[in-house]
Write a structure and sequence with these properties.
Elements: E1 5-10, H1 17-28, E2 32-34, H2 53-58, E3 61-62, H3 75-89, E4 95-99, H4 103-111, H5 121-134, H6 136-146, H7 148-151, H8 159-172, E5 190-197, H9 200-217, H10 219-226, H11 241-247, H12 253-276, E6 282-285, H13 290-301
Helix pairs in contact: 3-4, 5-6, 5-8, 6-8, 9-12, 11-12
Organism: Mesonia oceanica
Protein name: tRNA dimethylallyltransferase
Enzyme class: transferase
Length: 304
């Protein structure tokens, strides 16, 4: 299937990946694989900016709200299911879109994951308990001791990543970083990577407006509905964890909203840092005419 192409649209949150992805899907009469890991969960709609009903109707999407926050779903599960879906879709289409800003999930589909040994589930349970009782700082310190190399590279504010690294360190007795950078998996399709960007001030402005819109759409009520499930990792994420602090009486609503904006800005910065390392990404300004993006894709996929 080397005449088949997977077109990835990546970039920071609130940059407009959904709209451009849909426009490209309509032009090529194809379908979209979502690679936004926060949009996988059916209980989280407003706070993760799930495409609207109109957007979902405009182009067929896969991996949108297909699991529960209670499900044990890993990036490895996504890789397996996404490759299976792509193999099926490539029977009908020469080009498929993959849209989303979850860098590790995009990488898993395009390159495959590094191999990690199977770890006893009780280790993760203990680490989750440690996070709840002692905070992320204790986990950060533990990772710095067990794997100083990875501790310098990982986003230490992301509890999912820190806990994942720690469970490997503890369960295997070896540093997490020692399992990284294994050989990439062979893929039977071509990969074209499109990145969307904008001046940082504009990205931050778009983020602040999006958070305001989310609150108007009912994010507070959505967070209340999932509050009782807050112990699940999926809900320890921007937009929900801040409102949980408000529900607990620790913060005012105004401060919680300001923290959502601040943490989303930090999230966007980390996304850009991740994607900027990939020299294969062709970057376009967020408001580039769609015809220009199509011209680039057509050039990359034309017979040479």
């Amino acid at each position: 299937m080397k005449n088949k192409s997977l077109i990835s649209v990546v970039g920071p949150t609130a940059i407009g990946k959904t709209s451009i992805g849909i426009a490209l899907a309509q032009h090529y009469q194809t379908e979209i694989i979502s690679a936004d890991s926060r949009q996988f969960f059916k209980e989280m709609e407003i706070g993760t900016a799930v495409p609207s009903k109109e957007e979902l109707a405009a182009a067929k999407h896969h991996f949108i709200q297909h699991i529960s926050v209670e499900d044990n779903y890993s990036v490895g599960d996504f890789e397996t299911e996404a490759i299976e879906k792509l193999n099926a879709l490539f029977q009908q289409h020469d080009k498929i879109l993959m849209v989303g800003g979850s860098g590790l999930y995009v990488k898993a589909v395009l390159e495959g994951l590094d191999y990690f040994p199977k770890i006893d589930a009780s280790i993760r349970q203990q680490l989750n308990l440690q996070l709840e009782e002692k905070g992320i700082e204790s986990l950060q310190q533990q990772l710095k001791e067990l794997d100083p190399v990875y501790a310098k590279k990982v986003d230490l504010e992301n509890p999912h990543r820190v806990i994942r690294a720690l469970e490997i360190c503890i369960g295997s007795g070896k540093p997490y970083s020692g399992f990284l950078n294994n050989n990439s998996a062979e893929r039977n399709f071509n990969s074209i990577k499109i990145g969307l960007t904008a001046p940082r001030e504009l990205i931050y402005e778009r983020i602040e407006k999006r958070v305001d819109v989310m609150m108007e759409q009912g994010l507070l009520e959505e967070a209340k509905r999932v509050y009782e499930k807050r112990e699940f990792n999926a809900l320890n994420t921007v937009g929900y964890k801040e409102l949980f602090q408000f529900f607990d009486g620790n913060w005012s609503l105004e401060f919680a909203i300001s923290e959502i904006k601040k943490n989303t800005r930090r999230f966007a910065k980390r996304q850009l840092t991740w994607f900027r390392k990939d020299k294969e990404i062709e970057w376009f300004n967020y408001n580039t005419a769609i015809e220009q993006v199509i011209d680039f894709i057509d050039f990359k996929t034309s017979p040479r």
